[in-house]
Every structure is written in C-alpha cells, then in structure tokens.
Write a structure and sequence with these properties.
The chain is mainly alpha-helical and 327 residues long. Helices cover 64% and strands 6% of the residues. A hairpin with a 2-residue loop joins strand 2 and strand 3.
Length: 327
C-alpha cells in the first residue's frame, strides 16, 4: 500500500545510513565508500572518452569534423563529468558541515541534482537532434545546439530551485530533502516520460538503418555527407548505459514511494542509486571502446578522412559517417 503525503517541504538532510559492525568497538558506514568508488569510476570513464576523442581529433586533423558517434559519446561524457564534480563538492561540504550546516552546504544542496537533470534532458535532446538530421533531413546548426544546451541547463536549475527533481541520494551529502511522497511520484512520471520518448527515437533510428537504407547508407540531406548505418548504431548503443542509469533512479524513487523504514533496506536502494547514476560515465566509455573496435572491423582503419572528387562523390566509403559533422 502506497501512502502519499501531498504536503511538500524541504529540510536539510542528515546522514542516517546502515552501519556495518566490524568489531564490538569499530563500525563504519559503507555507503560513502561505495559513493567514492562509484564517482571514481564515473570520472575515469569520462576522462577515457575525452582522451580517445582528443586522440581521434588529432589523427583526422583540426579542420576535419569528428565522427557523429564520437561527438555523441563526447556530449554524454560532458554531462556525466559535471554531475560527478557536483557529487565531489557535495561530499566535501557534508564533511565540513557535519555539525552545523553552513550556507555553502545549503546552497549546493538546492542545486545538487541540477546536473543529473541536465544529463536526463540533454542526452534525450541530442538523440532527438540525431533523429531530425538523419530521418527528417533537418539541418540544425551549432548555434541552435548551443542555444538548446543553455535552455536545458537553465531548466534544470529552475527545477532545482522549486525542488522538482529531488532524486539524488538524500542522506549522503548536502541536499534539501523533500518531505512528502508526491514529489517522488512526480519524479517517476517525469523520468518515465523522458525515457519512453528517447526509446521511441532509438527504435526509429534502428529501424531506419535496418529497413530504410538505400545505396548502402543513409543520406542526411543533399548538402551533407552520407552516414553509414554502423555509425548510427554506434550512437544508439551509447544510450544503453543512459537507460540503465535512469532505471536505477526510478527504482530508488519507487522505494521512497513505499516509505521503507528499515535502514538496511534504505541503504540497499541508496547503493543501487549511487551505482546507477555513476554508471553513465564508465558505461559510456565501455560502449565507446566497443564501438571503436566494431568500426575498425567494419571499415578498416577509420582514422583517415578521404576527400571528394570534382563531382562531389565520396572517393572512399570510409568517409561516410567518419567525416560527419554533428553537434
């Protein structure tokens, strides 16, 4: 039976997790240690993607645009590394404000989930832009891309101000903890709608590569380079960690809806959330490495961009999708 308290207030969270007893005199809380480990993996994955994208850019040349799938993974890594940095700041402020919460801790607590919300909205938005370019032949400039990023970031901060996105691990760091189950129900509905939208786009893109291909490639429009199906599949496969990440957030919110009172059970769901939200960076790097290997098997050495002849025809099919300008 789910009971909801429709009243909504925000108060400062205090650590109250399950503690492991090592001996009659020594006990510790394993959740912060798991948090530090998860953040480290998140940052490591993001740095790996940044390094590989930088190396690829150096190989193909400064004047050549990055492949579509590489830029897609790069943008996912940006949103994940921003959230990881925010977690580190929150964790430090929690330690320095453990006796009496300070102003800095309260301020960071208000905006702590902003970058996580930015990840939710931005990755889905990038996927939709990919769909428009590939399936609808819409040519969106970088200027529009930056405007979209600014709008999404502003929306994430506004949601944080009004407490509409309180789905981070509440008891670990400086966070303004909501009182009332209605906010968790709103979170579930909002996250589910975004994920369904992103999943629908993914199915459309995969269907396009499987059944809507002509001349062994998909053309974005007459003025742009063609894109090979494997490049689109690489971009779509980069979303697998994203879906797993937000399914873990949904599980955590469902647990809070049931108002679990047992500390060990609460800690279990908190650990699921911590591992889930930090899976984005490491999972993105894992998929990027796999996609690089698959691309190498399909097209050979993908580091050299080829030029067009006088008739503007691609001399080598490797450039299809490799010299694609996106985002």
């Amino acid at each position: 039976m789910i009971t909801l308290n429709t009243s909504y207030n925000v108060g400062h969270a205090s650590p109250n997790n399950f503690r492991v007893l090592i001996s009659p005199f020594i006990e510790f809380d394993p959740v912060p240690l798991i948090l530090i480990f998860a953040i480290s993996l998140n940052l490591l994955g993001c740095v790996e993607v940044f390094y590989r994208v930088h190396c690829k850019k150096c190989r193909i040349g400064k004047n050549q645009p990055l492949p579509l799938d590489s830029k897609f993974s790069f943008n996912i890594a940006i949103s994940n590394v921003l959230f990881a940095i925010m977690q580190i700041i929150d964790l430090i402020l929690t330690g320095t404000s453990s006796i009496k919460p300070g102003i800095a801790c309260d301020f960071m607590g208000i905006f702590s989930p902003s970058f996580l919300t930015f990840n939710l909205l931005s990755v889905t938005s990038f996927t939709y832009l990919l769909f428009l370019r590939v399936c609808k032949s819409v040519d969106i400039t970088r200027k529009h891309d930056w405007r979209l990023r600014k709008l999404l970031f502003l929306g994430s901060w506004v949601a944080s101000i009004y407490g509409l996105n309180r789905y981070e691990p509440q008891d670990l760091w400086c966070s303004n903890k909501p009182q009332g189950g209605i906010i968790y129900l709103v979170n579930v509905g909002f996250i589910t709608s975004i994920l369904i939208f992103a999943l629908t786009i993914c199915f459309r893109l995969v269907n396009m590569t499987l059944y809507g291909i002509s001349d062994d490639h998909v053309r974005v429009n007459k003025k742009r380079e063609p894109v090979q199906p494997h490049v689109i599949r690489n971009a779509v496969s980069s979303l697998i960690p994203y879906f797993v990440q937000w399914i873990c957030v949904l599980i955590y919110n469902f647990a809070l809806l049931h108002e679990v009172n047992d500390k060990s059970t609460k800690s279990f769901f908190t650990i699921i959330l911590i591992l889930g939200v930090n899976l984005g960076g490491f999972g993105n790097a894992f998929m990027y490495i796999i996609n690089e290997y698959r691309t190498f098997l399909i097209v050979g050495n993908p580091t050299k961009c080829h030029t067009l002849d006088q008739n503007n025809v691609v001399v080598n099919s490797i450039s299809r999708g490799i010299c694609m300008d996106f985002l």
